[in-house]
Amino acid sequence: MRTLLARFANLFRRRDLEDRLEEEVRFHLEMEAEKQVRRGLAPQDAAFAAKSAFGGEQLAKERYRDQRGLPVLELLIKDIQYGFRMIGRNRGFTLIAVLSLALGIGANTAIFTLIDAVLLRSLPVEAPGELVAVGNTARPGGMSQGGVRIDQFSYPMYQRLRDRNQVFSGLLASGRAGLLDASIDGGGLERIVGRLVSDNFFEVLGIGASMGRVFATGDDRKRGANPVVVISYNYWMNRFAHDSGMIGRTIKLNGLDYTVIGVGPRGFTGEVVGQSADVWIPLSMQAQVNLGDGRLDEKGATWLLLLGRRKPGVSFEQARAEMTALIIQTMIEFEAGAKISQDQLRQIRSEKVYVSPGGKGFSSLRNHVSEPLMILMFVVGFVLLIACANVANLLLARATTRSKEISVRLAVGATRPRLVRQLLTESILLASLGGLAGMLLAWAGSGVLLRLASNRPAPIPLDVNPNPTMLAFTAGVSLLTGILFGLAPAMRSTRVELASALKESARGLTGRGGFQLGKILVVAQVALSLLLLVGAGLFLKSLQNLETLDVGYQRSSLIILEVYPRASGYTEAQQLPMAQQLLDRLRQVPGVSGATVSVNGIFSGTESTSDELEFPGYTMTRREDATANFDSVGPHYFQVLGVPVLAGREFDEHDVLKSEPVAILNESMARFYFGSRDPVGQPMKSGKERYRIVGVTRDIRQQDLKGKSERRFYRPYFQQAGGVPGFCFEIRANADAASMTSTIRREVQSFDKNLKIFRLEPVHVLIDESITDDRLIAQLSGFFGVLALVLAATGLYGIMAYTISRRANEIGLRMALGASQAELVRMVLRETLTLVGAGIIIG
Model's pTM, two decimal places? Predict the structure, then answer.
């Protein structure tokens, strides 16, 4: 090791060592010359004899240099210096090659950066591999919905799991804070993102505060008595400009003052990837944050995600097994008071609990963008291959101009492996320059991709800044790319016949083989680009089909208004009357032809499901047969939407709390349970509720454009006894929907200025947002397909120009013998179209 370090140090004092070497060699020669003079030789003869006795002076110096330095590293440095000189001589070639590679490498790096941020990166917490996720944001749902996995939990369930488990050193709980309006220093309201978390949230994650303190044990144990918050580092930086006096300041959230006790750690935005939290609030303050919502005491209110840290020596499988058993046991205990039946007991025991490694946090974004990103990674991989083929063709063509250089170097003793290494060094340098330029493109492109992938005005909050993983990926791709496009031209360029290559009239050194290799590369480029173009065409066609799909109603003039009366201070008893009053006001707005109300608005993202359906004359053979989605809707719901009622009647103002419970089935549900029989007038049961079927309506696309029409039934909204956190108004406008939104907003504010509006959008905008994934794939695959075509066309031009330049004498001879310009053009086009045709057939 000392020898190695000494040799490495010698690289930085070469001038001093060279001077000492020169002095030492001169000293030995002088001593030998004096010795020869004493033997009687003349001074001149003595000097010659001394040199003869010493041997080859330069050879001795080289041996000494090899012993004192690192020959491999020194040769590499020389190769790099020479490579920079060579690529600097032909700036046009370098610019084209680097640009081609930058596009390919940059596209790959941009897509990989998003994949890393969404799918691969662990949370910036202590020992993320020890975390276990109990819950799932990818698919929101209750504890038992048609046999789906148990993926969210109630607060009473969390308390049992926290206190009874034997596998976790700590188990935290977190849930969305809902609509959160903040007022700072008496200013106006601003909408922020908050998470309600247990007091051990930061302790379990193993992170502390950048300033102040985080929550301590007991901060969420007493209901409504601890109005404190921890704000995120990003929120502190962007909203408060790193104010060092932030600790102890007051922020008003939904009308209540909260004291800031700390600032979260830098780089930590929350446990849910793609949802950057601004503030964290103790769970004990839930009822104050969500006015009128007492879900902390409700065993059936499933809204919390759980994250546990395994104890030392506890495996993930042990944690999964214990949590599954404990959750099912707790569910049985919760149902015991209701005289649980054997069927219900079997159903609970058959439930699947969602338990998974938690080091990467929770994310609904993974399901949203993972498939598009993987498809795009495949596409940009092809683009990079085409760019490599393009640069390989350029290198083959450039090899012609370097024939004399390579031939001379071979003639004077350079070995073929040595020249191949030099040429590969130049290729890797080109790839490295392309990688640097590509990284800059990726940095800008990742932000654009986030905006395209987002179904909201603001981009998805992900960190796509350069990081070690991104740099390592870019470096690896650049190195692999340099070898990929440089190896074949290097091997071909050094396979020459010296006698002919050294002649002044030599056409080049690639010969017929290089020509054929260039043709093969062009055919491959055309095939790959055609593959990408056809794929892009199919994606675009799919997008067009989705955009023009018949959803069952007129989408252009329909508006969705979603409000949250509970968060605005309305009690359950006040919510239904308020809904009726606001509905009456909306119907009187000029330009509105009709309005109705529902719990789950069209394409609002919320859904209700029943898994305990019963119908006369139908035997449930599978558990999923008893499952269907449903919605609670207001009077004239189908009339406002423009959906025909195929049998029976529509809901009207007589369907209220004291009237007979009724329901309407959609066409798919009626056909599934009744076949050719008429369902109107028949009874049905959903859980403990019994209804009489009064109508059948046409199927509509309510939440999703893809897949088959699903079974769905409807019940009257004003027959509900209790309130709901929020509801949606469907409003039919006489004119363009977008032009009516501001008028409707003013009407709502005139009705109640404190009523929180969660969403006010034309339905066609919501539908467009639901196919963001398809639009992202279609747009980017089309862009990359065109880019691949341009690169293939450039490669085709390059190889044909190279071929024609090699055949200059032949073409001149043909012209001298009488060939016309048109004939020569046909000859060239024939060869060109042959290559294109072969590529098209293969593609």
Answer: 0.76
